[in-house]
Amino acid sequence: MAVGQGDGSLADIAGTALILAALDRPGVSFQKYEHHLKILALDLDAEGGQETSASARAEALAATLYDRHEYSGNEDYYDDLQNANLMSVIDTRRGLPISLSILYMHAARSQGWHVEGLTFPGHFLIRLSGAGPMDGRVILDPFNRGGIMDARGLRQLVRKTSSSDVDLKPDYYQPATDREILIRLLDNIKIRCLKVSDMGQAINILSRQVLIDPEEIQHHYELGMLLAHVGKDDSARERLTYCLTQSEKFERNDLIEQQVINTLKSLDKQTHEARGGIVLRLPEKE
After folding, report:
1. Residue 6: pLDDT over 90
2. Same domain, yes or no, for 166 and 182?
3. Across the beta sheet with 137-141, what order do the strands follow?
């Protein structure tokens, strides 16, 4: 079942991120983290809950999250898995751009402010709106003290995080749904797990991504291929067979489809040789 509404929005993005974090910290009390989210909301209300301009709201957010609660980016240990676990982020006050952004978004929404994540590449940012059309909009970087980003800063950031000398593009300013933000948060964990060959946890993360966004075929494909890699043949076969029934969602990527077919044939060959079983019949393409 997908997380959120049909448009990918969530009533409580930080609460959902805490639930995901709790899956990797069994036995840890959930109550103090929920309480902390309430404190952030109360403190922002006291700091500037009545502000109307986007810039004044941004200052109030930074004063609450950075100055008062000392949230900032973990530059020294950027690749630490705990930077993407919201419970750990609350404990240490250090995190990734996206995990810190979730806390900023939570606080802003607690005041009824409109805030959204952006699809900016390589470094997650948020956009905060004022109360009305004349109150402006600003882009914030929660990783760097919640500062307001101007065009020059954005250009420097995209060049820092890109392997090529590229300029700003309209796509970078597109809003990300809450569901997409959670998927991107989990991507950070998945990538770090794969870097250290922690296949078991990478499979756990991919399984969560499938539950959060079941319509995205890429999650099913990656999960199936990884299951095949670690020898969980039956689970891999089930997932990859499903992928073939949804092959139109591969966006005409014949290479991925062929990889799925080849992997299924390989799995079937292994099973046939080991058990003398029945050869797998691949689903017919329509």
Report:
1. no
2. no
3. 147-149, 137-141, 126-129, 115-118, 175-176
Amino acid sitting at position 257:
E
DSSP structure string for 193-225: HHHTT-HHHHHHHHHHHHHH-TT-HHHHHHHHH
Instruction: Tell me which residue range forms the domain holding 18.
Output: 13-176
Residues 97 and 222 in one domain: no
CB atoms within 10 A of CB 232: 16
Contact 233, 271 (CB under 8 A): yes
CATH label of the domain that carries residue 161: 3.10.620
pLDDT tens digits, one per residue of 128-158? 999 999 999 999 999 999 999 999 999 999 8
Q: Are residues 167 and 85 in the same domain?
A: yes
Q: At what angle do helices 54-62 and 97-110 cross, to 10 degrees?
A: 120
For residues 116 and 205, state if they share a domain: no
Which residues neighbour 286 within 8 Å (Cβ) at sequence distance 6 or greater? none
Of 176, 205, 232, the position where a domain reaches its end is 176
Same domain, 153 and 185: no
Distance CA 6, CA 179 (A): 10
- Name which residue leads in pLDDT, 65 or 272: 65
User: Could you give the CA distance from residue 207 to residue 214 in angstroms, rounded to a whole number?
Assistant: 10
Encoding tokens for residue 166? 């590229």
Say how many C-beta atoms besides its own lie within 10 A of residue 28's C-beta. 13
Residues forming beta bridges with residue 176, ordered by sequence position: 117
Query: Are 139 and 213 part of one and the same domain?
Result: no
- Alpha helices by DSSP H, listed for the chain, are 13-22, 31-48, 54-62, 86-92, 97-110, 151-161, 178-195, 199-212, 217-229, 233-245, 254-275
Looking at the domain assignment, is residue 2 inside a domain? no
